[in-house]
Design a protein that fits this description.
Layout lengths: L1 E2 L5 H10 L6 H11 L13 H10 E2 L4 E8 L4 E7 L6 E9 L1 H4 L4 E5 L3 E3 L14 E4 L2 H12 L6 E4 L9 H12 L11 E5 L3 H8 L6 E5 L5 H7 L8 H15 L3 E7 L7 H11 L4 E7 L13 H13 L3 E4 L27 H9 L5
Helix pairs in contact: 5-6, 7-9, 10-11
The structure holds S-adenosyl-L-homocysteine.
């Protein structure tokens, strides 16, 4: 059975028209499904009973079942493992809430979503990259990760920085984004959404043409192509120059800056001289560099640089006129940090549901 949220708004409207329903039903149904987060059509009390029945016969609104939950930072960070199909496929999502006093910005709740089970990009330092690719998520499965948390509290931001490469699952990612920003959908600010990409140039160009104000983060990680290809083997023929050009196109189309993510790996890409070369390559762009001190992952022989090395790298960029920040870390003890979204050994709070717990246990939790 199809999930209703795999359909676009236009497709739902077309289905309703075919069934002789007035146009305003689309908004009614969208609000029930996304704003109130109902998971069955029977609850949509302002729809005619017959329509509820027809919808239920053709579509589902089932949420993703929670297999496991982990909480950190006094409840401000929460990671969930969500069951995709009851057959051993699961995906992780993280919620991070920020107090107004923490960074001067009023209450902000960010959900980090996954777009694929595994990932084909094989980044040398990334936990998901080591798992290989299993499958793309559907739009409803991406939205379900946000809906899981909107049922608990208001979510202001979504970052596509979980498992997978969003621009390699372009159609589903965009469909989910459109529902997130739709006034009858999750009604989020376009600028509250950030897509992070390993650097798929065609995808960046396509995204620039969507007419959406969503933020773009390009994962750079190296000041030269040779090193970048070692860290991101699938970067293949894509050069940093091409990425800078794609970023320039995005900036022009959106009228807003892009972010370059740079995972700092001890003595691999964190030398001051590398910071200077990085600065040269992106100088003049309306860009910002977000430094992510590497989150060590078992089985990968890379290290996080010392705080001093991180600061030195940042200072070098700033001295060259590049705006650079160091990413604030969350949820390290629950492996909820960047690039660590993967199924770890299950020792955490179970959802309290025995059947779900045994299913979680049967999924391969990697260490
Ligand atoms: N496929 C997208 C999203 C990946 S996760 C992309 O490549 O951008 C978001 C960010 O975390 C990426 O910049 C990724 O390179 C980075 N990352 C992955 N593993 C990491 C780790 N162990 N430590 C620090 N950053 C990591």
């Amino acid at each position: 059975m199809r999930h209703l949220l795999d359909l676009s708004k236009d497709e739902i409207a077309a289905w309703l028209a075919e069934h002789g329903e007035p146009g305003y039903r689309t908004a009614q149904i969208a609000r029930w499904a996304l704003q109130r987060g109902v998971t069955d059509f029977e609850s949509m009390t302002d729809l005619p009973a017959a329509l509820r029945g027809t919808l239920a016969a053709e579509f589902t609104l089932a949420p993703l079942e929670v297999l496991a939950t982990r909480v950190a930072d006094d409840g401000d960070t929460k990671k969930v493992l969500l069951d995709l199909d009851g057959a051993g496929q699961a995906v992780e999502a993280v919620r991070m809430s920020y107090d107004p006093d923490e960074d001067g910005v009023p209450d902000r709740t960010t959900v980090c979503v996954s777009t694929q089970v595994g990932c084909a990009m094989a980044c040398a330092f990334c936990a998901t990259g080591q798992q290989g690719f299993t499958r793309n998520l559907r739009p409803s499965e991406i939205l379900a990760q946000v809906l899981h948390f909107t049922r608990e509290r208001r979510v202001t931001n979504v970052v596509f920085m979980g498992m997978g490469e969003p621009l390699a699952n372009y159609a589903a990612t965009l469909r989910a984004v459109r529902w997130m920003v739709d006034p009858d959908g999750l009604d989020m600010r376009q600028r509250g959404i950030t897509i992070s990409t390993v650097g798929i140039v065609s995808g960046i160009r396509r995204l620039a043409a969507e007419g959406l104000q969503v933020g773009l983060t390009i994962s750079l990680h190296a000041p030269d192509d040779e090193l970048r290809r070692r860290l991101i083997p699938t970067a293949g023929g894509t050069t940093i120059d091409e990425l800078v050009e794609a970023a320039r196109g995005y900036i022009e189309a959106q009228g807003r800056r892009v972010t370059f993510a740079y995972a700092l790996l001890d003595h691999v890409n964190d030398e001051p001289e590398q910071a200077r070369r990085l600065a040269q390559r992106i100088r003049g762009l309306q860009a910002h560099v977000n430094l992510i001190p590497y989150n060590p992952t078992a089985g990968i022989g890379l290290k996080r640089p010392s705080r001093e090395r991180v600061r030195a790298f940042q200072r070098e960029l700033q001295a060259a006129g590049i705006n650079a920040t160091v990413r604030v870390e969350r949820g390290q003890e629950i492996a909820a940090a960047c690039g660590q979204l993967r199924t770890d050994v299950l020792s955490a709070t179970r959802s309290g549901d025995d059947e779900a717990a045994s299913r979680a246990a049967s999924i391969e939790w990697r260490e």
